[in-house]
Amino acid sequence: MIAGALDTKSRLAAILFSIAAAVVLGGLVVGLTGANPVSVYLEIAKGAVLGRGLDETLARSVPLVGMALAAAIALRAGLVNLGGDGQMLIGGLAAALVALYLPVPGAARAVLALAAAICAGGLYAWLAAILQLNLGIPFLIASLLFSYIARGLTSYLVRYPLRDPATGMPETYRVASGARLPAHIFDLPVSMAMVIMVVVAVVVVVNDRSGVNGFEWRMTGLNARFAQYSGVDLSRQTQRVAFLSGAMAGLVGALLILGQQYRFTDGALLAPGYTWSGLMAAVLAMASPIATIVTSVFFAALQVGGFSMERALGLPAVLTWVLQALIILCLAARPILFRKR
Amino acid sequence: MTLLEMKGITKRFDGVIANDGISLSVNRGEIHALMGENGAGKSTLMNILYGLLKPDAGEILVDGKAMDFTSPLGAIAAGIGMVHQTFRQFPNLTVWENLVFQNEPRQGPFVSADAARDFVRRLGSRHGLEIDPDSLVRDLAVGIRQRLEILKALSREARILILDEPTAVLTPQERDGLFSAMRELAGKGMALILVTHKIPEVIAITDKITVMRDGRVSGTLVTRGTNEAEIIRAMVGRNVPPTVASRVTSDARPMLSVKDLSVRKGAVTVVDDVSFDVRPGEIVGIAGVSGNGQPQLISAVMGLEPATGVVSIDGQDISRLPIARRRSAGISYVPEDRHLTGTAPAASIAENIVFGTHRNAAASSKGFLRKDAIRAQARKLIERFRVKAASEQLPIGSLSGGNMQKVVIAREVEHGSPLIIVEEPTRGVDVGAIEFIHQTLIAERDKGRAILVVSSDLTELLALSDRILVMFEGRINASLTGSDMNEDTVGRWMMGGAENR
């Protein structure tokens, strides 16, 4: 894949080039609408880091980094996980069920809810891996299609059996405050979800750089035949990597439910499009975990800045999605634009 | 007289100079050898001639006219044809369909099959390269498929024909057929450029030799006035003694024992009831034309392919074990294709060396890699096996073919397994590295290891092996030792043996 052919230095150059090219192209688009590109970019930048913008950027980074790492873990090992939506939904649902109905004290409920979400998201992705290994259905397809099943299932559950009749919305009851993840730890502007994501991200990075498992996954992504020849059990590894990728997405679902939304509302987890932004961040970072964290925080800032720009200038925040897409397109087009003869 | 002239061709890649002022001139009716180690710049030069690369400086003259190729189409129009090492053919189509592709004779809106067949027959008889227009390409022997490749170039009126290592896949008999065809084409006034590593065939067939080293021409020789030693000196810049294996045979009990091994692919039996032993202290070579089951046999021994029969190492039955357990039971394995199977080209040299033993205490503890130890070990092997690499951190894919192969062999030999299986030990490897790899294998044998070598290069097998097994249509049809190990006898068994006498 793209990642294979590039060393670190030219990879960084490629990423920076793609961003620069996308900024120029995006500026042209803005210019065509009659607005001033410079002031648009200025508003985006200010909105992302100034005042409350920084808090919002950090808050948005938590799910985005999580979904980006979910995609990157799989991508690094040669698997394309397009089913982040479904795994996040199933994880979020599992967390909500445990947090709402398990008769144990509050904090324990939160811990068990997180564990349930990790297992549920992981198993959901693992099922798709099993389909690939036993029936030859590509993981890419199966994981994507499983998302639609998860959507239908969760939508039904929160509309009928689990519905809170008091709100008039298709959603569950609110999670009791004891089972929620605190939004501030020791009155610092740091949420529990943030701490959990930082710890998980560190584990992922360390495993990738120095872990025996991370090494095997990376080598498999670079050349699966070589990995098999060197004694890696590819089937078991595929199952494991799929599980972990799905578990990460499931964890994101739980962090959103327990730390931000406090109930499972139909459609609320998917509306911000974390899965797809995350996937784009992972692709832009060519699946390197550290770079993935950087690019996904960058995308979070871009999105937050976009909303602020919309408020200030009245231009639609969708522009930032256009920018994200342009960055990826430029990255993909780079080998053709710079073809050597 | 001069048909092709290349003058002062220079080409840089990212600051590295691949061709440095190369000049090459080929006359009408001449067979011209282009020799050199891997990384010497032969491929770059030929890709420039065929319009695949643009030179930074220099000019190409065909018939005295300056050419400026922007793509192979320009080169083809100027009468340059190329026979690639890997055939570019549609295996599921017939010979005539392959030959007239993109140049189909028409009858109204339809392709006229009769005219096409006729065209193929006339083309074949004009050049003495007859071929049945209605055969399916996938059913043809490699030699015939190569003939088709040559005909394809000729059908586009090629006057200059580049042949890239054409004998790598041929039996000795097929090779002789190719050589007589080449002489015939030269006799008609064509210019032929033969890109090769193999000195005997250069001496046998060519008129002139251009030798390249490090991107420059290191020798222009007239074949009749030169000898093997002079060519080698021009290629590697020093004298290389020919490899001679001392032939010792041991009667110890077998290290590898294969009994009644069969591999089936659908209805086809690709490995058919094969039995043989390899004992400590001997090198057993497996010869055979490609496509007779050699890779499947090795895959079955390694556990990469489902098979029936018994494989045992030092008396222990390993037939049911997965590949990792087989390797730890005592097999080192150098696979045929170092890019596809033997390495991860984008990973570093050190990572490629440690992968496979990275769970051992020397390379990791408690689930974490010991990176310093891994790098130190890689540096040690790079030095001991004289790998030309600036750093163990470089991607292994940046090395030349010979150096890459040395790394793979170093890794496998270093495992210390009692059995080493080597497929194509020196394919696409330069002369200097060939010698080193052969010496390494012989040294390992002399230490008492059992070595199984599969190679399509008969010269190599004859030089290395204490015993040669010949595979034909999935069976081992001959086990040859002593004076029977010569090109003629082995070649005859490769073609099926007795009935072909």
Could you describe the 3D structure shown?
The complex is a heterodimer of chains A (341) and B (501). With 341 residues, chain A is mainly alpha-helical. In chain A, 74% of the residues lie in helices and 0% in strands. Chain A has helices spanning 8-32, 37-49, 52-76, 84-101, 106-135, 139-159, 192-210, 212-222, 224-229, 234-261, 274-284, 289-313, 318-337. Chain A is globular. The two termini of chain B are 43 Å apart. Chain B is globular. Chain B has a 6-stranded mixed beta sheet, sandwiched between helices. Chain B has a 6-stranded mixed beta sheet with strand order 18-21-22-15-23-24, sandwiched between helices. In chain B, helix 15 links the parallel strand 21 and strand 22 (450-454). Chain B has 3 domains: 2-236, Rossmann fold, CATH 3.40.50; 243-330 and 417-501, Rossmann fold (3-Layer(aba) Sandwich); 342-416, no CATH class. With 501 residues, chain B is α/β, with parallel strands linked by helices. The A-B interface holds A 3-5, 7, 210-213, 215-216, 218-219, 222-223, 225-233, 340-341 and B 13, 53-54, 304, 322-324, 327-328, 333, 335, 340-347, 351, 355-356, 358-359, 364, 367-369, 371, 395.
Core attributes:
heterodimer, A: 341 residues, mainly alpha, ABC transporter involved in vitamin B12 uptake, BtuC, 13 helices, disordered N terminus, B: 501 residues, alpha/beta, Rossmann fold, 3 domains, six-stranded mixed sheet, 17 helices, 24 strands, globular
Could you give the distance between the termini of chain B? 43 Å
According to CATH, the fold-level topology of chain A is ABC transporter involved in vitamin B12 uptake, BtuC
In round numbers, the mean pLDDT of chain B is: 89
Number of strands of chain A: 0
Total domain count of chain B: 3
Radius of gyration of chain A: 21 Å
CATH C-level class of chain A is Mainly Alpha
What is the CATH architecture assignment of chain A?
Orthogonal Bundle
Alpha-beta classification of chain B = alpha/beta
Helical run tally of chain B: 17
CATH topology of the largest domain in chain B: Rossmann fold
